[in-house]
Design goal:
- One of its GO terms (molecular function) is DNA binding.
- Keywords: DNA-binding, Phosphoprotein, Transcription, Transcription regulation.
- This is DNA-binding response regulator.
- It contains 10 helices and 6 strands.
- Helix 7 crosses helix 10 and helix 8 crosses helix 9.
- Strands 2-1-3-4-5-6 form a 6-stranded parallel sheet, with helices on both faces.
- With 217 residues, it is α/β, with parallel strands linked by helices.
- The protein has 2 domains: 138 residues, Response regulator (Rossmann fold), CATH 3.40.50.2300; 55 residues, Winged helix-like DNA-binding domain superfamily/Winged helix DNA-binding domain (Arc Repressor Mutant, subunit A), CATH 1.10.10.10.
- Helix 3 links the parallel strand 3 and strand 4.
Length: 217
Amino acid sequence: MSTPVRILLADDHALVRRGVRLILDSEPDLTVVAEAGDGAEAIALARTERPDLAILDIAMPRLTGLQAARELSRLLPGIRILILTMYDNEQFFFEALRAGASGYVLKSVADRDLVEACRAAMRDEPFLYPGAVTALIRDYLDRAARGGELPARVVTEREEEVLKLVAEGHSSKEIAGLLFISVKTVERHRANLLQKLGLRDRLELTRYAIRAGLIEP
């Protein structure tokens, strides 16, 4: 038998990780080698464990699954990535594809779809749940009708990182330490966010972060 696929599993709910691990470890060709409780921990573990596949929840502390996916795609170009989420949301789905994910699996049907999604990812094949296929077709038809491309991101990746940490209640000094940037740089990003998004203060930034799926309400 060939060596099992080595998997990094990241979700901030221990019970979810336990259930998903039971599904994966029951398959002879899959094995979970590391678990993370947030996106930043997932990146750190990926550096040391060098997994073949990362399964990331979207809504996690410090870094979301989408932010972690973008960073993992840069750090480890050969890694396969799956997004495991409770959100049946077209915006998150397209962001996952842009971030380098091979598939998007809903937690509600993980017991049915996750194993096949892992195997598809390792074959370099996309895995899309039925609603995602519908979204892709609709998006293609819409863009064909408009003759345009997908809209550019409203905020940069770094601004998104700062936004998430601001919404989680971190001070500028704490954010600077977490992102290895200066306090002045944090304040500049915060000011840019307020101006770009037309918001006034931390409370409105937090509300925006919830709507954008960066943090859970």
